Structures are given as C-alpha cells and as structure tokens.
Automatic annotation (TrEMBL):
One of its GO terms (biological process) is negative regulation of DNA-templated transcription. Belongs to the NrdR family. Transmembrane segments: none annotated. This is Transcriptional repressor NrdR. Its cofactor is Zn(2+). Keywords: ATP-binding, DNA-binding, Metal-binding, Nucleotide-binding, Repressor, Transcription, Transcription regulation, Zinc, Zinc-finger. Residues 46-136 form the ATP-cone domain. The keyword Cytoplasm does not apply. The keyword Transport does not apply. Binds 1 zinc ion. A zinc finger (unnamed) spans 3-34. GO terms for molecular function: ATP binding; DNA binding; zinc ion binding.
Length: 160
C-alpha cells in the first residue's frame, strides 16, 4: 500500500485490530521513508439486491440521501442523519449476510427514523410502503399512537 503522504510504494503494518463489532479490521501502517502513520480499514462488501434483480454494494450515503428528503423542514441535522446511516449499516451487517434485499434496507431505516422524528418516518414510510390513500396514513398513525401509548404505560409501570 502506498504512503498517502509521500507516495512511497512500501509501508509496513505496525498494528492490526478487529473493530468492536467484529465487522472490520483496522491496520495501523507506518511509512519507512517519511515515518508518518495512517490507518486502513478492511470490511466485507455488503450487497443490496434491488427489485430489478441487480445487486449493488451497500452505500450509506444513498441511505442518508433517501432519508434526507423525508426530513425536509424537520428539526433533524446532518449529525442525526449520519448516525442513522451508521445504525442502519450496523443493523444490516450484524445479520452476518453477504447480501440483503433493498426491502430489508428500507425496514432497517424505518426503526431508527421513527425514534428520530415521527413526521419524517411517516413521509418515508408512505414512499417505501407505497401508501396510496388517506386510510394507509391513518393506519400508520394509529399504529404509532397505539405503540406510543403502550410504551408510556410500560414506563408508568416501571416508575411506580
Ligand atoms: Zn511516506
């Protein structure tokens, strides 16, 4: 591997570590010419199978771009989006599969997006689940309400 500082074609590995989640290997390298150090990360490629039947490598930026559209005008900043992209990737990688369906990616987005912002969640769900009328929205809202209520009841039980 070339040194990114001086382009020397020969660098040596001084430390190798597996990331905490076990899905990446980090190598600390040193250039014998300029003595500077840098890190490389090795991960397996996660493929996303699209509805068309084509597969493409998972792309966190693509996930973020899709979610960003649903978040317009909502109090969500770039850091929230970055974190969500990371959560989605970790969720998918934790399944230990080399390939997932694009549907799975959509589902993996819905959960953290809902915790972030319910309006953005509904917008995203309406596209992803192909809502065609008001009843679809109503149903999704009812589900959100019912689940919020049971979550509140749960915390009330825990507090008493
Ligand atoms: Zn160098």
């Amino acid at each position: 591997m070339h040194c990114p500082f001086c382009q020397n074609p020969d660098t040596k590995v001084v430390d190798t570590r597996i990331s905490d989640d076990g899905h990446a290997i980090r190598r600390r390298r040193e250039c014998p010419q300029c003595s500077r150090r840098f890190t490389t990360v090795e991960t397996s490629i996660l493929l996303v199978m699209k509805r068309s039947g084509n597969a493409e490598p998972f792309n966190r930026d693509k996930v973020i771009a899709g979610v960003r559209k649903a978040c317009q005008g909502r109090p969500i900043d770039e850091n929230d989006l970055k974190l969500l992209g990371q959560q989605v990737e970790e969720d998918l990688r934790s399944r230990g599969l080399a390939q997932v369906d694009s549907e799975e990616v959509g589902r993996a987005i819905l959960k953290p997006l809902r915790e972030l912002d319910e309006v953005a969640y509904l917008r995203f769900a309406s596209v992803y689940r192909n809502f065609s009328n008001l009843e679809d929205f109503q149903q999704a809202i009812d589900t959100l309400r019912a689940e919020d209520q049971s979550a509140e009841e749960q915390s009330a039980i825990q507090q008493s």
